[in-house]
Amino acid sequence: MDKKLEELKKQYNDVPIPKELDFVVESALRQGKRKKKNRGPQWLLGTAAAAMLFTASLNISPAMARTLSDIPVVGSVIKVLTWTEYEVAEDTYDATIKVPSIEHLENTDLANALNEKYRSEGKALYDDFIAEVGDLKANGGGHYGIDSGYDIKTDNDQILSIGRYIVNTVGSSSTVMHYDTIDKQNEILITLPSLFKDDSYIQAISENIKEQMREQIAATNEEKVYWVKGAGLPDEELMEVFTTINKEQQFYISEKGKLVISFDKYEVAPGYMGVVEFEIPTDVLQNSLVSNKYIH
């Protein structure tokens, strides 16, 4: 199971991401607040054309039509919808892969780069599922399932945070999360390092998470378990001890403007704990933050 989880993470991380994404993010961050373009007749024309294309897509794609009622509205214009959906239901093999698409961002370079990344990821997951099922059938059969989709973590006037998940089932299950957080006003992608002046945030966040882990274990009589030293667990029960977050650790910004750090299932705790999150107090971050525009 652990080997399968590692293979899944590798396949996910190896999905080719459009090279222009890094350029778009870097240039957008340097650019700062973008000047709003005239949204006169051209905006109306674009909206009409988009509506025609969207209606045609619904007629062609029943999967898209089924998700129409679930489309979350972002602000007054930007929307996140299911671009395509892969579905397989065959005996002991099943897959549901929903691919999100960000629509109506004025920053089309950023939208196109993100959407291409999402579509590449979804297609790669589907292709891998089909290949894995083929191998299982050739070797006597088995059980295999993939459930992948997305969840809007934050949607307010300033921030859009999208969480994309993959649940892989082979005997037991594993879950991998990836997030994208967008400044809707300036239409730029926010990265974890971009929030801070320097790398000092890594240690500040890591130490706070370890403190929260120990407090949760103590408060629940070890019903909650994390692989962290100083929690009263025998060393042999500590698999890979948590010491520090990654520089690009998965995160999102909550509706209340708090930084939330996310860990995949099995990353810092036993499987029954699932995906675990830690909200970091802003006073822990204050000395490292570039500003309180996003985190407050």
Please describe the topology of this protein.
Layout: H1 2-13, H2 20-31, H3 41-60, H4 62-66, E1 79-90, E2 93-103, H5 108-138, E3 144-155, E4 159-170, E5 172-183, E6 188-190, H6 200-219, E7 251-253, E8 259-263, E9 276-280, H7 282-285
Parallel strand pairs: 2-3
Antiparallel strand pairs: 1-2, 3-4, 4-5, 5-6, 7-8, 8-9
Tell me about this structure:
The chain is built from 7 helices and 9 strands, in the order H-H-H-H-E-E-H-E-E-E-E-H-E-E-E-H. The strands form 2 sheets. Strands 1-2-3-4-5-6 form a 6-stranded mixed sheet, with helices on one face. The radius of gyration is 21 Å and the shape is flat.
Summarize the structure.
The protein contains seven helices and nine strands, in the order H-H-H-H-E-E-H-E-E-E-E-H-E-E-E-H. It has helices at residues 2-13, 20-31, 41-60, 62-66, 108-138, 200-219, 282-285; strands spanning 79-90, 93-103, 144-155, 159-170, 172-183, 188-190, 251-253, 259-263, 276-280.
